[in-house]
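Action item from last week, closing it out:
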Amino acid sequence: MAKYFYLLFFIVASTFGGCSKYSKILKSSNYELKYNYACQYYEKQSYSKALPLLEELLTIFKGTEKGEKIYYYYCKTNYELGDYILAGYHCKIFARNYPNNEHAEECAYLHAYCFYLDSPKYSLDQTNTLAAIEEMQVFINEHPNSTRVAQANEIIDKLRYKIATKQYEAARHYYFVENYKAAIVAFENVIKDNPSTPYREKTMVAIIKSYYLLAEQSIDLKKAERYQLSIDNYYKFVDAFPISEQLKECESIYNKCVKQKQKSQQI
């Protein structure tokens, strides 16, 4: 029991002692001392302790070699603590102000990468996603020989896929609520905006179906024209995906359109 008590006392004393020491460092007017501890905390990955010290030292050592190091640590500390907006902003400034620094390229990349990390799921507003694509492309253009280019391209592909998913799912929403006119416009824009969209095959099938179902809902005067549009899109689909697994289903719709068009023209 006594052994347990002394162990507990030691832990509590160490904790409060550590807090007291850190508090004294924060209150100290010795900036060299603060600089040394800020670097120690950063290098030990104690980012929450490093941050207040680094923030204070930014202006104290501005324009010096130490100031350059402090600013880099400040950028990375915000990044490690998950403040991607602030980290991205300061990484951009660091890369611009210190282009010859050994960490300039890393910070230029992190600026774009922070936009990527802040990109939300596809169903939400994609402003940050578009910004991430743009900033990653800027990085690639400015650092074409960087070892990070391959990763930057992979991230751009992921982000474009997210944008494509948002567009495709928005179009599918119109389809499922049976607003086929809006669905057709939305599906056609998916391909128009991104001809290489990963949803191209599914989108072309959806256009065929949408024109057919729109024709089924239409007044007699418009049926033939809309069946024909489904037929035309079927031909485009066969040319683009001659061995598609969905070819049989599309062929069935095509045959229905041909028959229904003939009937509507006889009325």
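Closing note: Residues 149-176 form the longest helix (28 residues).
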